[in-house]
Amino acid sequence: MRLRAEYSVGSDLRFLSNLDMMNLMARALRRARIPFALSEGFNPHIRLSMGTVLPVGLWGKREYFDLELEREMSINEFVDNMNQSLPPAMRINACLEIGIKTPALMNSINCACYSFVINDRTEQLELWKARTLQQEELMVKSRGKKKNLDKNLRPGILKIEVNRLQDFAIIDIWGTIGEPLNVRYDELRDLLLQTGIDKETVGDIYRSGNYIRERDKYYTPLEKVK
Question: Once rounded to an integer, what is the mean pLDDT over residues 50-61?
Fold first, then answer.
Protein backbone atom coordinates (compact mmCIF):
# COMPACT_ATOMS: atom_id res chain seq x y z
CA MET A 1 0.00 0.00 0.00
CA ARG A 2 1.29 3.44 -0.90
CA LEU A 3 0.10 6.69 0.69
CA ARG A 4 0.48 10.35 -0.15
CA ALA A 5 -0.01 12.79 2.73
CA GLU A 6 -0.33 16.54 2.95
CA TYR A 7 0.99 18.08 6.17
CA SER A 8 1.66 21.49 7.67
CA VAL A 9 4.82 22.68 9.44
CA GLY A 10 4.28 25.48 11.96
CA SER A 11 6.56 28.42 12.58
CA ASP A 12 8.04 26.77 15.69
CA LEU A 13 9.79 24.28 13.39
CA ARG A 14 10.93 26.70 10.73
CA PHE A 15 14.63 26.17 11.48
CA LEU A 16 14.67 22.39 11.02
CA SER A 17 16.90 21.13 8.21
CA ASN A 18 15.62 18.62 5.68
CA LEU A 19 17.47 15.83 7.50
CA ASP A 20 15.94 16.93 10.82
CA MET A 21 12.50 16.87 9.22
CA MET A 22 12.99 13.36 7.87
CA ASN A 23 14.22 12.12 11.25
CA LEU A 24 11.27 13.77 12.99
CA MET A 25 8.83 12.12 10.59
CA ALA A 26 10.52 8.72 11.00
CA ARG A 27 10.27 8.93 14.79
CA ALA A 28 6.59 9.87 14.53
CA LEU A 29 5.93 6.88 12.26
CA ARG A 30 7.50 4.56 14.82
CA ARG A 31 5.66 6.11 17.76
CA ALA A 32 2.38 5.88 15.85
CA ARG A 33 3.07 2.18 15.13
CA ILE A 34 2.58 2.69 11.41
CA PRO A 35 3.33 -0.55 9.47
CA PHE A 36 5.81 1.16 7.13
CA ALA A 37 7.80 -0.82 4.59
CA LEU A 38 11.59 -0.98 4.73
CA SER A 39 14.08 -0.97 1.91
CA GLU A 40 16.24 -4.01 1.29
CA GLY A 41 19.97 -4.21 1.86
CA PHE A 42 22.47 -4.00 4.69
CA ASN A 43 21.11 -0.73 6.08
CA PRO A 44 17.31 -0.76 5.55
CA HIS A 45 15.42 2.51 5.83
CA ILE A 46 11.77 3.54 5.84
CA ARG A 47 10.32 3.85 2.35
CA LEU A 48 9.50 7.49 2.95
CA SER A 49 9.85 10.01 0.16
CA MET A 50 9.58 13.67 1.14
CA GLY A 51 8.48 16.28 -1.38
CA THR A 52 10.42 19.42 -2.23
CA VAL A 53 12.75 20.57 0.53
CA LEU A 54 11.24 23.23 2.80
CA PRO A 55 13.92 25.92 3.08
CA VAL A 56 15.38 26.47 6.53
CA GLY A 57 13.71 29.53 8.04
CA LEU A 58 10.32 28.95 6.44
CA TRP A 59 7.21 27.22 7.69
CA GLY A 60 4.80 25.52 5.32
CA LYS A 61 1.04 25.24 5.00
CA ARG A 62 0.91 22.39 2.49
CA GLU A 63 3.91 20.06 2.31
CA TYR A 64 3.84 16.44 1.09
CA PHE A 65 5.37 13.01 1.51
CA ASP A 66 4.85 9.53 0.03
CA LEU A 67 5.03 6.44 2.21
CA GLU A 68 4.95 2.73 1.46
CA LEU A 69 3.28 0.37 3.93
CA GLU A 70 3.88 -3.34 4.29
CA ARG A 71 0.16 -4.00 4.79
CA GLU A 72 -3.22 -2.32 4.36
CA MET A 73 -4.22 0.37 6.84
CA SER A 74 -7.23 2.66 7.17
CA ILE A 75 -6.51 6.20 5.97
CA ASN A 76 -8.38 7.65 8.95
CA GLU A 77 -6.39 5.49 11.36
CA PHE A 78 -3.14 6.58 9.75
CA VAL A 79 -4.03 10.28 10.02
CA ASP A 80 -5.30 9.99 13.61
CA ASN A 81 -2.29 7.99 14.83
CA MET A 82 0.19 10.32 13.15
CA ASN A 83 -1.42 13.47 14.50
CA GLN A 84 -1.22 12.04 18.00
CA SER A 85 2.50 11.31 17.52
CA LEU A 86 3.69 14.43 15.69
CA PRO A 87 4.75 17.54 17.64
CA PRO A 88 2.08 20.24 18.10
CA ALA A 89 3.55 22.37 15.30
CA MET A 90 3.02 19.62 12.71
CA ARG A 91 -0.19 18.07 11.48
CA ILE A 92 -1.36 15.74 8.71
CA ASN A 93 -4.01 17.69 6.81
CA ALA A 94 -5.12 15.00 4.38
CA CYS A 95 -4.06 11.64 2.99
CA LEU A 96 -5.02 9.23 0.23
CA GLU A 97 -3.87 5.97 -1.28
CA ILE A 98 -1.96 6.23 -4.53
CA GLY A 99 -0.90 3.69 -7.12
CA ILE A 100 2.51 2.06 -7.26
CA LYS A 101 3.14 3.72 -10.62
CA THR A 102 2.23 7.23 -9.44
CA PRO A 103 5.23 9.48 -10.21
CA ALA A 104 7.33 10.50 -7.23
CA LEU A 105 6.73 13.91 -5.71
CA MET A 106 10.17 15.20 -6.66
CA ASN A 107 9.44 14.32 -10.29
CA SER A 108 5.97 15.88 -10.24
CA ILE A 109 6.04 19.12 -8.28
CA ASN A 110 7.23 21.87 -10.59
CA CYS A 111 6.19 25.08 -8.84
CA ALA A 112 5.57 26.51 -5.39
CA CYS A 113 3.81 29.50 -3.89
CA TYR A 114 5.77 31.65 -1.46
CA SER A 115 3.83 34.09 0.70
CA PHE A 116 5.15 37.39 2.05
CA VAL A 117 3.30 39.20 4.81
CA ILE A 118 3.48 42.94 4.12
CA ASN A 119 2.46 45.74 6.47
CA ASP A 120 1.46 48.15 3.74
CA ARG A 121 -1.54 49.52 1.85
CA THR A 122 -3.08 47.16 -0.69
CA GLU A 123 -3.43 49.92 -3.30
CA GLN A 124 0.32 50.45 -3.36
CA LEU A 125 0.94 46.71 -3.59
CA GLU A 126 -1.44 46.35 -6.53
CA LEU A 127 0.55 49.01 -8.36
CA TRP A 128 3.75 47.18 -7.48
CA LYS A 129 2.29 43.91 -8.81
CA ALA A 130 1.24 45.46 -12.13
CA ARG A 131 4.59 47.18 -12.56
CA THR A 132 6.51 44.00 -11.73
CA LEU A 133 4.59 41.76 -14.12
CA GLN A 134 5.12 44.24 -16.96
CA GLN A 135 8.88 43.84 -16.77
CA GLU A 136 10.67 41.65 -19.30
CA GLU A 137 13.56 41.05 -16.90
CA LEU A 138 13.68 40.84 -13.11
CA MET A 139 17.33 40.52 -12.22
CA VAL A 140 18.69 39.45 -8.83
CA LYS A 141 21.92 37.92 -7.58
CA SER A 142 21.65 34.14 -7.45
CA ARG A 143 21.52 32.58 -3.97
CA GLY A 144 21.79 29.03 -5.26
CA LYS A 145 24.85 26.97 -6.11
CA LYS A 146 26.15 29.65 -8.48
CA LYS A 147 26.09 32.43 -5.92
CA ASN A 148 26.14 36.10 -6.90
CA LEU A 149 25.66 35.48 -10.61
CA ASP A 150 23.02 37.63 -12.29
CA LYS A 151 19.76 35.70 -12.49
CA ASN A 152 16.59 36.68 -14.35
CA LEU A 153 13.58 35.53 -12.32
CA ARG A 154 10.95 36.80 -14.75
CA PRO A 155 10.56 33.56 -16.79
CA GLY A 156 10.09 31.64 -13.54
CA ILE A 157 7.48 33.92 -11.97
CA LEU A 158 4.17 32.40 -13.02
CA LYS A 159 1.70 34.66 -11.24
CA ILE A 160 1.37 37.10 -8.36
CA GLU A 161 -1.62 37.75 -6.14
CA VAL A 162 -2.14 40.41 -3.47
CA ASN A 163 -4.61 39.63 -0.69
CA ARG A 164 -5.82 42.05 1.99
CA LEU A 165 -6.23 40.65 5.51
CA GLN A 166 -7.27 43.11 8.23
CA ASP A 167 -4.40 45.58 8.68
CA PHE A 168 -1.84 43.83 6.48
CA ALA A 169 -1.55 42.19 3.07
CA ILE A 170 -0.06 38.98 1.71
CA ILE A 171 1.82 38.81 -1.56
CA ASP A 172 1.61 35.30 -3.03
CA ILE A 173 4.19 34.54 -5.71
CA TRP A 174 4.11 31.32 -7.72
CA GLY A 175 7.57 30.35 -9.00
CA THR A 176 9.02 27.45 -10.93
CA ILE A 177 11.01 24.69 -9.21
CA GLY A 178 13.92 22.72 -10.64
CA GLU A 179 15.11 22.96 -14.21
CA PRO A 180 15.43 25.09 -16.22
CA LEU A 181 14.84 27.80 -13.61
CA ASN A 182 14.60 27.27 -9.86
CA VAL A 183 13.09 30.30 -8.13
CA ARG A 184 14.14 30.52 -4.47
CA TYR A 185 12.23 32.32 -1.75
CA ASP A 186 15.26 34.39 -0.71
CA GLU A 187 15.72 35.55 -4.30
CA LEU A 188 12.06 36.59 -4.35
CA ARG A 189 12.61 38.50 -1.11
CA ASP A 190 15.57 40.28 -2.71
CA LEU A 191 13.38 41.07 -5.71
CA LEU A 192 10.70 42.62 -3.51
CA LEU A 193 13.24 44.91 -1.89
CA GLN A 194 14.79 45.85 -5.24
CA THR A 195 11.44 46.72 -6.79
CA GLY A 196 10.10 49.11 -4.18
CA ILE A 197 8.89 47.09 -1.20
CA ASP A 198 10.21 48.66 2.02
CA LYS A 199 12.29 46.16 4.00
CA GLU A 200 10.67 47.36 7.23
CA THR A 201 7.22 46.33 5.97
CA VAL A 202 8.20 42.72 5.21
CA GLY A 203 7.06 40.44 8.03
CA ASP A 204 6.58 36.70 7.95
CA ILE A 205 7.55 34.53 4.96
CA TYR A 206 6.22 31.02 4.41
CA ARG A 207 5.50 28.48 1.69
CA SER A 208 1.76 28.23 1.24
CA GLY A 209 1.75 25.39 -1.27
CA ASN A 210 3.47 23.06 -3.74
CA TYR A 211 1.86 22.44 -7.11
CA ILE A 212 1.91 20.44 -10.30
CA ARG A 213 1.47 22.96 -13.09
CA GLU A 214 0.08 21.90 -16.45
CA ARG A 215 -0.16 24.86 -18.80
CA ASP A 216 -2.26 27.46 -16.94
CA LYS A 217 -3.71 25.08 -14.34
CA TYR A 218 -2.32 24.30 -10.90
CA TYR A 219 -3.00 21.02 -9.10
CA THR A 220 -1.97 19.93 -5.62
CA PRO A 221 -0.11 16.60 -5.45
CA LEU A 222 -3.29 15.12 -3.93
CA GLU A 223 -5.34 16.24 -6.90
CA LYS A 224 -2.92 14.94 -9.50
CA VAL A 225 -1.92 11.37 -8.67
CA LYS A 226 -1.98 9.65 -12.07
Answer: 94
